[in-house]
Amino acid sequence: MSKVWFVTGSSRGLGRNFVEAALSRGDQVAATARSTASLDPLVTTYGDALLPLEMDVTDKAAVFDSVKRAEEHFGRLDVIVNNAGYAQVGAVEELTEQDLRDQLETNLFGAVWVIQAALPYLREQRSGHIIQLSSAAGLIAMPLGGAYHASKWALEGLNEALAGEVADFGVKVTIIEPGGFATRSGNNPDPLNNGHMAEPDPAYDNLRRRLGAMAGRQPAGDPAAAAQALLTLVDADNPPLRILFGQGFYPMIQQAYTDRLKMWADWQNLSAQAQGGADA
């Protein structure tokens, strides 16, 4: 049975590949972007199977209107893909209030508006699959990515909570954590590259140089392959809550979790002391 998709951030990158993969197998897609001009060739190829919608995820009213239009146009919604987002780059000290607010408005609040707009339809039909694009940066943190990490770590917790809230309605939630994929700038596996740059403070120039020398050491993933993997994911009877797309960051994530467990274990005596009482 074909599926109806609602995909944000569809004009390029992974979002565009997700849209093309779904259409190519006979599914129907409502594809949103700030400008839908780039979707015109797909409209020519796939006709009414594609509904292009101009939408900025930071505009709550526009999000609710677009989801409503998509559901009315296709008669149902099966797969909601929260893909829209960008990376704000800069040391925490360098971030302006507006830098941080803009990052959260797009990456976090934009995703929340889409979820809230779509859920009434999914609950009523007692089915659906919410796909949240997070990042390897939602699991580990690197210098100069504080704002981006804040948004992605927030999405990780938000969607884990959501999964428990909607399970009884037959709605599934999967958080995808991609590593680096060759999208806007070709072979670019750095999840913090291609981001918005904060005004640099010279105090962090040495750190920037060190991190710059390390960038690009991992091979970039193929967005078309990621799109095929997504098709397999949405067709699964019991999809995972979390899945990495790409293996490049797995050793780093594995080490990070090992280190966290060891750190907590090493400091158990002080943890017990902080609790007080007889166990201290």
Describe the protein in words.
With 280 residues, the protein is α/β, with parallel strands linked by helices. The protein has 2 domains: 245 residues, 3-Layer(aba) Sandwich (Rossmann fold); 31 residues. 47% of the residues lie in helices and 15% in strands. The protein is built from 9 helices and 9 strands. Strands 3-2-1-4-6-7-9 form a 7-stranded parallel β-sheet, sandwiched between helices. α1 crosses α7 and α3 runs parallel beside α4. About 4% of the residues have low confidence.
List descriptors:
280 residues; alpha/beta; Rossmann fold; 2 domains; seven-stranded parallel beta sheet; two-stranded parallel ribbon; 9 helices; 15% strand
CATH class of the largest domain reads Alpha Beta
CATH superfamily of the largest domain: NAD(P)-binding Rossmann-like Domain
Structural class: alpha/beta
What number is the mean pLDDT? 92
Topology record:
Layout (H helix, E strand, L loop, with lengths): L3 E4 L5 H12 L3 E6 L6 H7 L3 E5 L5 H15 L4 E4 L5 E2 L7 H29 L2 E6 L12 H21 L4 E8 L17 E2 L7 H10 L8 H13 L6 E4 L4 H17 L1 H8 L5
Parallel strand pairs: 1-2, 1-4, 2-3, 4-6, 5-8, 6-7, 7-9
Helix pairs in contact: 1-7, 3-4, 4-5
Task: Describe the structure concisely for a colleague.
The protein is of the alpha/beta class.
